[in-house]
Amino acid sequence: MAVEPAANVFLYEEKSLENDVVALELFDPAKHSVPFVKLVQDHPESFQYLAFPLLDHVDDFLTKIYNPIATSDADLLWAIIDKTCPAGDSGTDNMAGVLSLNDTRKELAYTEMGAVVFPAFQRSHVTSNAIGLCLQWLLDPPSKGGLGLRRVMWQANAKNSASRRVAERMGFTLEGILRWHRTFAPNRDCQKAPGVPTAALAARNGTDPKDEAPGRHTAIFSIVWDEWDAKRAVVEAQMARRK
Length: 243
Fold this sequence. Notes:
- 30% of the residues lie in helices and 25% in strands.
């Protein structure tokens, strides 16, 4: 029996965002699930710094990724669409990746954002415009059509230099490194290298090394409301670049 997609219950209004080159479409399982799973399968290297589950088919995606996001009022998922590329016969050939909000707290006016952009769309206008559109919506005041949040966070595996460069380029400030912040289950061959080794921990604790999942140090970045007016110009400049 096929898994049914859940209905979204996000804390704020769920809306698509777009400009002349990129659209953030609210993730539609009927439209976006199949191409996303295919992209995941074709590009496992895109997840080498993430503890991302293996996806053999769409039901895996719905069960492990989409439905937990959709049924959480703290999370939201968009498909990133490159409007400068043809959609093709499938209507989704221009799907460049996904962008998500996580751990949104209305009482704290806070959220965390993250994105995966697949190789064919990297080093282009896509990443900066997807992130920029989202930041504008999150941090602009309600009088300008935004949510007026106080804080937006970006987390990256401390070893993921590309993600850290993106955050800095888009105006995020590095707040510090959370050491041994997460475990890093090596469920893909390409995920074994980025984990922090735990052989010494196993020897210290007298445990089986196989039972000690690799660790992860996390780089924490943020943009906050009282610097947004200045940093908005930085974001707009990045969005204007086409290379």
